[in-house]
Amino acid sequence: MARPRIHVTAPVPLEVEEALAHDFELSPSPEGVRGVVAMLTTRVDGPYLDRAGPQLEVVANYAVGVNNVDLAAAAERNVLVANTPDVLTRATAELAVGLMLALLRRIVEGDRFVRRSDEWVFSLEFMLGSSLDGADLLVVGPGRIGRETARLAEAFGARASFAGRGDDLHALLAGADVVSLHVPLRSETRHLIDADALAAMRTSAILVNTARGPVVDERALVEALRAGTIAGAALDVYEREPQVEEGLLELDNVVLTPHLGSATRDTRVAMGMLCVEALRAVLLEGRRPANAVGARPAR
């Protein structure tokens, strides 16, 4: 019996590739396949789905967020979409807290200073930062990653609170020393942090984004940082990724990382295995996987 044909939109860890090759025939293009493993950099929209063809049954998105997938277009074509929840929760939360510490304690700034070979001597007033201990942390988006971020930050002495749908975000921003973003990218969360939101924050506050880049209006963020509206920002994701707003590159009170939220080998492999399990469930076992997103297609 022929193995189902699938397409993988970008290279995956060897362990995942071997698992896929064991059960499926790998195709270099999406035309005529029954399953797709899609990276978050692949836009899976109506034209892409039509290119794949009407035999396509499942798209396994190699991410927990599915903003790169047109879920309505997939449902119209009876294509099931799956994601990779849970397995990247700890890794992303760790990075969020790491970014907080890097910014508050000026770790990256200090690293750049030393690498420039600038002259310095130890001084009690030199490059002072601040601590998470006693800081008021506002987690915007109280999902799995947001709550794990709060738990880890509380181990450093932070006092965590949450902002969810229906809450007065600007009022909550006004009471926070650290704001950490963990919302999915939807129409209502695009530019959730805009000039008005930044103006509502304390001048001593910092902003951390490990969610999706367009949640923050980067140009407004640059202006707020330059004006001292907020004290700093740490970003792992970008509005026009992989491009970064040029003004952010010029500021010392900014820490930037290249979308490393889930970037541990164990995490990336575990994410891939969830994709493999989704393909096996749909194409080999004829069932809906536990990590399916949205309504059941009518196929």
Summarize this, please?
The protein has 299 residues and is α/β, with parallel strands linked by helices. The chain has helices at residues 14-23, 46-52, 71-76, 89-104, 107-115, 144-155, 169-173, 195-200, 218-227, 246-249, 265-284; strands spanning 5-8, 25-27, 35-38, 58-61, 80-82, 136-140, 159-163, 178-181, 206-209, 232-235, 254-256, 292-293.
Describe this structure in words.
With 299 residues, the protein is an alpha/beta fold. 35% of the residues lie in helices and 15% in strands. It contains eleven helices and twelve strands. The protein has helices at 14-23, 46-52, 71-76, 89-104, 107-115, 144-155, 169-173, 195-200, 218-227, 246-249, 265-284; strands at residues 5-8, 25-27, 35-38, 58-61, 80-82, 136-140, 159-163, 178-181, 206-209, 232-235, 254-256, 292-293. The strands form two sheets. Strands 2-1-3-4-5-12 form a six-stranded mixed beta sheet. It has a six-stranded parallel beta sheet with strand order 7-6-8-9-10-11. Helix 2 (46-52) links the parallel strand 3 (35-38) and strand 4 (58-61). It is elongated.
Which descriptors apply to this entry?
single chain, 299 residues, alpha/beta, 12 strands, elongated
Biggest sheet strand order reads 2-1-3-4-5-12
Give the averaged pLDDT, no decimals.
96
Distance between the amino and carboxyl termini: 22 Å
Biggest β-sheet description:
6 strands, mixed
Rg calculated over all Cα atoms: 21 Å
Strand content: 15-25%
Count of individual beta strands: 12
